[in-house]
C-alpha cells in the first residue's frame, strides 16, 4: 500500500513525460537548421497496458506483438523519418515546435500546481487542520 496513493505516483509519471517532451522539443528547435536532422517526438509505447495496469495479460503469439509488461516506461522517443520540409533534408517545422512547446509548458505548470495542491492538503492534515 502506498502512503500517498496513486495520485502522486501518476502525477510524478506525468511530470516525467512532460519533462522528456520538453527536452525533445527543445532539441528539435535547437537543430532546426542542422542538415538531415529528423524531428523527434515523445509517444506512448503502450497506453492500453498502462491504463489497465495489472489486470490485463496478453499472450504474445508473434515476436512483433507489443509486450504488455509492468514496470516499463509508457512513453518513448521516436524519429519522424518520412518527411522533409527543408532543402537540406531537415524536417523540423519551427512553428509547430513552438506551439507544442507552449502547450507542453502549460501542461507541465498545471501538473506542478496539482501536485502542490496535494502536498498542501497533506500539510493541512499533518498540522491538524490549521
TrEMBL record:
Query: Would the keyword Disulfide bond turn up in this protein's UniProt record?
Result: no
Could you tell me the keywords of this UniProt record? Answer: Bacterial flagellum, Cell projection, Cilium, Flagellum
What is one Pfam family matched by this protein? Flg_bb_rod
Q: Does the keyword Ubl conjugation apply?
A: no
**Localization (cell):** Bacterial flagellum basal body
Question: Where does the record place the Flagellar basal body rod protein N-terminal domain?
Answer: 24-38
The UniProt entry's sequence similarity note says: Belongs to the flagella basal body rod proteins family.
Instruction: Summarize the protein's role.
Output: Structural component of flagellum, the bacterial motility apparatus. Part of the rod structure of flagellar basal body.
Q: How does this chain assemble?
A: The basal body constitutes a major portion of the flagellar organelle and consists of a number of rings mounted on a central rod.
This one is known as: Flagellar basal body rod protein FlgB
Species assigned in the record: Aquibacillus albus
Amino acid at each position: 500500500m502506498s502512503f500517498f496513493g496513486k495520485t502522486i505516483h501518476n502525477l510524478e509519471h506525468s511530470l516525467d513525460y512532460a519533462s522528456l517532451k520538453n527536452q525533445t522539443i527543445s532539441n528539435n528547435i535547437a537543430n532546426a537548421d542542422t542538415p538531415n536532422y529528423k524531428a523527434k517526438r515523445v509517444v506512448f509505447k503502450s497506453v492500453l497496458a498502462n491504463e489497465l495496469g495489472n489486470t490485463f495479460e496478453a499472450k504474445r503469439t508473434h515476436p512483433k506483438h507489443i509486450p504488455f509488461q509492468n514496470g516499463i516506461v509508457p512513453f518513448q522517443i521516436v524519429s519522424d523519418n518520412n518527411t522533409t520540409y527543408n532543402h537540406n533534408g531537415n524536417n523540423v517545422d519551427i512553428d509547430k515546435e513552438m506551439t507544442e512547446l507552449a502547450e507542453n509548458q502549460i501542461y507541465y505548470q498545471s501538473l506542478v500546481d496539482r501536485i502542490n495542491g496535494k502536498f498542501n492538503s497533506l500539510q493541512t492534515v499533518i498540522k491538524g487542520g490549521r
